[in-house]
Design goal:
Layout lengths: L5 H12 L4 E3 L19 H9 L4 E5 L6 E7 L4 H8 L7 E3 L3 E7 L8 E5 L2 E4 L4 E4 L11 E4 L4 E2 L2 H9 L16 H12 L10 H15 L4 H12 L8 H12 L11
Parallel strand pairs: 5-10
Antiparallel strand pairs: 1-2, 2-8, 3-5, 3-7, 4-5, 4-9, 6-7
């Protein structure tokens, strides 16, 4: 069987869906570039250069960056059954993943944040997240496959209403610090770049919380200063956390007295 040209597939996906893409490690879900989905591009020259360096999987950012949101169903957790009990999705572009399905939908006018487990076994990949697209190879060795290349369906109103009803309480961000920490911000960014990404099932919460602790306790940054750095780190996480989850981690880390303030300065 002729091997799949993932570079050509990345170019095709970017052109067909008018979306930026980025390389993901072979047979994996972790970005192959430092900036991850934040550095995604629709420039054919850049895409060719990336895939000329290796048979990378294809990453696609979700949310406003691409205009696409993805309902991510994990059948190992009964996702399809729970989703079917809520609604029947319209015909839309969809893919078979290693253990479930991805349903690609046009992003609604209302900006959606990513949600992990809004139903058992069902996640929403929206702002601040990404998906791995066909014909990438899943860590299990199975390939992601398109099962429908239908046009993107509008985001269902019924699903939007469910997401609004089930949304967690709003998080109130602490006021911005009046003190400038320019040098500390630069040092913190360099420090976090060396920290390993969080991976689901491999103590991902602990890894991300350690980063949050380093930022707001170790470098004594305000939550406002720390959030952009944590978002950069989040681009390497598998899967990425939602913005609200990142804010809560910073809030919890700032309230922790387990480490002395400024221990990394």
């Amino acid at each position: 069987m002729k091997p799949v040209d993932l570079g050509l597939a990345a170019l095709s996906l970017s052109r067909e869906l008018r979306t930026p893409v980025f390389p993901v490690i072979e047979r994996g879900k972790t970005p192959a570039t430092r900036r991850g989905f934040l550095g995604a591009s629709s420039d054919p020259r850049r895409i060719r250069a990336w895939w000329a360096a290796g048979a990378f999987n294809i990453g696609m950012p979700t949310g406003a960056t691409s205009g696409i949101v993805v309902v991510d169903v994990d059948d190992d957790k009964g996702g399809s059954e729970h989703l079917a009990a809520l609604l029947s999705l319209p015909s839309t572009r969809s893919a078979k993943t290693g253990n479930g399905f991805h349903y690609y939908l046009a992003a609604p006018a209302t900006q959606l944040r990513s949600r992990v487990g809004f139903l058992p076994g069902v996640d929403l990949r929206a702002a601040g997240a990404y998906v791995v697209a066909p014909p990438s190879v899943h860590p299990s060795g199975r390939s992601y496959e398109w099962i429908s290349t239908a046009p993107l369906a509008p985001f269902p109103e019924e699903l939007l209403a469910h997401l609004v009803r089930s949304a967690p309480p709003s998080f109130t961000r602490p006021p911005r610090s009046s003190t400038s920490h320019g040098p500390a911000v630069a040092r913190a960014r360099a420090y976090v770049r060396s920290m390993p990404p969080a991976v689901s099932g491999q103590r991902g919460h602990d890894a991300t919380f350690l980063v949050a602790l380093a930022l707001v306790r170790g470098f004594a940054l305000s939550n406002t200063e720390a959030l952009p750095i944590l978002e950069e780190y989040n681009a390497r996480c598998v899967p990425p956390w939602s913005e609200r989850e990142l804010e809560h981690k910073l809030h919890d880390a700032a309230g922790s007295d387990r480490l002395q303030l400024g221990y990394l300065l």
